[in-house]
Structure prediction request, 232 residues.
Amino acid sequence: MKKLTAIALFILTGFASQAQSNEGLHFGLKITPSIAWLRTDTKGTESNGSKFGFCYGLITEFQFSDNYSFATGLDVTYRGGNLRSTEETNDNITKVVTIAESEMTLQYIELPITLKLKTNEIGYLTYYLQAGLAPAINIRSRADIKYNTQTTTLATNSTVTSNVELDDEDIQDDINNINLSMIIGGGIEYTLSGSTVLLVGVQFNNGLLDVSDADGLKMNSNMLGLSVGILF
Prediction:
């Protein structure tokens, strides 16, 4: 975390020095509380709800015309979601049904690359649409996992149930190091003074790559968030 903070401060200082000599360059900060979930089409596995996600980072905009900007930055993003899988085996003597419920937290460093289209300023407000891609590197993956196993002896129809819970398990080996998302968003900018702008917008990140590296499981990471930031 200390190294990440040092890198962020270095980049922010560089943006500040460039902004003094280039009116078309703006930099700032943002936070994005969000809802994150996992999408899967693997047989026997289904999405089991969403979880709270979060994103914070730096914003950089290169304005190349009055209504168009190239927007990028550096984000630390917490994503993930809940999955439920069911596995059944039957050897005509016993039937074993295992239900696994996983709550995953996936942490990434993302580099959004987007095009931002803005209206002319109406009063103090400017409306914008934004679209692009966000390549990312996974830096941490954890999961809380609950196993419920029911073993039934077919001859007597008697069932024995067992439960196992694993908290904060390291699942980094089962997660791909690289991710890629499509970004679609929109919102408003409010001019505070001069070139200082407060922005509020909605952002949807649609996962394009399989984030799982485990055999027999395919899943994509999605996120819907409310971004609040400031540009200088």
About this structure: The chain has one helix and eleven strands. Residues 4-9, 11-21 have pLDDT under 50 and may be disordered. The CA atoms of residues 37 and 50 lie 5 Å apart.
